[in-house]
Specification:
Length: 307
């Protein structure tokens, strides 16, 4: 057997043996093979979740949670939603986000119900690492959608999400208002914010254009959004847009944040009060070279190209 073939087999065997992912106390970010990372700071700790998958992006077995005191060494994963405990009719478990709302933890995660269309669902818990209970679907059930995030404006809560290119072709970023306590959505409020073709940095001629991972935050009083797409160079990109007012005002594409095959970013605050961005990079994996997607923490507030 050729040395390269032997290495490929050994790499694949090792990867298979580590599935499901074992609990460890000393993970480094480069070894946590998550897509769509999301970090939330609670008490004296950081909590990391994201999309955990193995042979395909749809074979996840739940929503993982890792914990750290310093952003360098992590313990986990624990499962806060377990596919084998009541959710066997769902697949994907993509892009989980945990938002703190009135001393509760609201988990948004993309699921695909058997026989139905993908969408973002809401779960709640009284503890960040506790048992999460299903509440409702947070995106329209007749649309293939994903990557829902929470945004609050004028006392109302909205799910900002992606209407997928698999149906829209030119993918959308949309918003829909949550009902009281998140127990469903008001379909009459569902509106388009912008399309994937708004990307002015690497415009694609392909009719299928991707929107991924919207995340909203305020910076110097302005409403901003991180979002991701695939550019004409076929690399995954992290972009930034700014609203001219509120959620439903005009969005202007203003910065290319990262163009080295990484994205699906969000903003979090360190225990010292410093803002950071976390993304996953690379966007794909190469088991032969032992290159896997993993969380990457970037500084906040500067355009980063070719890092």
């Amino acid at each position: 057997m050729k040395l390269l073939d032997l290495f490929k087999r050994k790499a694949k065997q090792k990867w298979v043996e580590e599935w499901p992912v074992p609990y460890k106390e000393d993970w480094e970010l480069k070894d946590i093979h998550l897509r769509d990372p999301y970090i939330v700071t609670v008490g004296d700790s950081y909590y990391l979740t994201g999309t955990l998958s193995h042979d395909s992006i749809s074979d996840g077995y739940g929503v993982p949670l890792y914990r750290s005191k310093d952003l360098k060494t992590w313990s986990g994963p624990a499962l806060i939603v377990d596919r084998d405990k009541g959710y066997s009719n769902y697949s994907c478990f993509w892009a989980p986000e945990i938002h703190i709302v009135d001393n509760e933890y609201w988990l948004f995660v993309t699921l695909e119900p058997k026989g139905g269309k993908r969408g973002t669902y809401l779960f709640k818990s009284n503890k960040i690492d506790g048992e999460y209970s299903f509440i409702a679907r947070g995106t329209p059930s007749d649309m293939f959608s994903l990557d829902g995030t929470l945004y609050e404006e004028n006392g109302e809560k909205y799910v900002v999400y992606c209407y997928e290119w698999v149906e829209a072709h030119d993918g959308h970023i949309r918003a829909v208002k949550l009902l009281e306590n998140g127990e469903g959505i008001d379909l009459a409020t569902d509106r388009l914010l912008f399309k994937a073709s708004a990307n002015v940095f690497y415009p694609r001629t392909n009719p299928n254009k991707i929107t991924d991972g919207p995340y909203l935050y305020k910076d110097k009083g302005k409403l901003k959004m991180l979002w991701s797409t695939v550019g004409s160079n076929k690399a995954y990109l992290l972009l930034s847009a700014t609203s001219k007012g509120g959620l439903f005002d005009e969005w202007v594409q203003d910065e290319l944040i990262y163009d080295e095959d990484g994205g699906h970013g969000m903003v979090f605050e360190t225990l010292e009060g410093e803002r950071k961005i976390v993304i996953h990079s690379p966007n794909g994996r190469n088991a032969e070279r032992w290159q896997f997607e993993h969380p990457v923490i970037l500084p906040f507030g500067k355009v980063k190209k070719h890092l």
